Amino acid sequence: MNYVVITGTSRGLGxxxxxxxxxxxxxxxxxxxxxxxxxxxxxxxxxxTYHHYTCHLDDTEQVDKVFSIIANQLFNQQTSIVYFIxxxxxxxxxxxxxxxxxxxxxxxxxxxxxxxxxxxxxFLMAANKTEIPLINVYVTSGAAERSVYGWGAYSATKAGLNxxxxxxxxxxxxxxxxxxxxxxxxxxxxxxxQKEIRSSSESSFQDVEQFKAYKRENNLRSTDKVAxxxxxxxxxSSTIENGKYYSVKNLLS
Length: 253
Description:
- The chain is of the alpha/beta class.
- It has nine helices and seven strands.
- It has helices at 12-23, 37-46, 60-74, 102-130, 152-175, 192-198, 208-216, 223-234, 248-252; strands spanning 2-7, 27-32, 50-54, 81-86, 134-139, 180-185, 245-247.
- It has a seven-stranded parallel β-sheet, sandwiched between helices.
- The longest helix has 29 residues, at 102-130.
- The chain is globular, with a radius of gyration of 18 Å.
């Protein structure tokens, strides 16, 4: 059986990915603060399974516990391959760095960087014990490659995630395992995160008017369209290039 583990399945890209994978006949495990009950119905209609695990990704103990439970269940003789899509993320705090408070920084770094690192470690350990192929997919942002006024935390954690993903890929190649890691850049999408960005003040985020224009001029891709691009790339595990940076802009051009 083929399994896909996705964080942030309650809405946005995570929900779209889960729906499309279920429709493709994959068994899906969703990790989010809230359960997406529509996915349970889709799984039943497709004759596959959807399991939800409630987890606050800013809580290290919860992340360790939940991902350990999932890994122990999936890496067994009935599993052919496991995809782990590290999708959940937050852009907050949106403000200049002198306005950041410790609590906001702590939550941000845990969600965007620490949770994927813990999850990757747990899954790779389980995968290496069973030799079941594991494909780690890290959802990034163009902000990882450039400094953005008001996005100090977001740019930093996404840059860190990119380097971490590249290291996972390097290590697995050198170790000669069947495991792979890739980076996926979905670019700008019509999501709740975009709403949060557009609600920022210009003093906190200088590019806010540009993001309002994206919405006004209908330049935001739907999450279903972006999710389909990634699902297509992952449909054949043998063609996935370990360590590659996949950009939706290039794949749709």
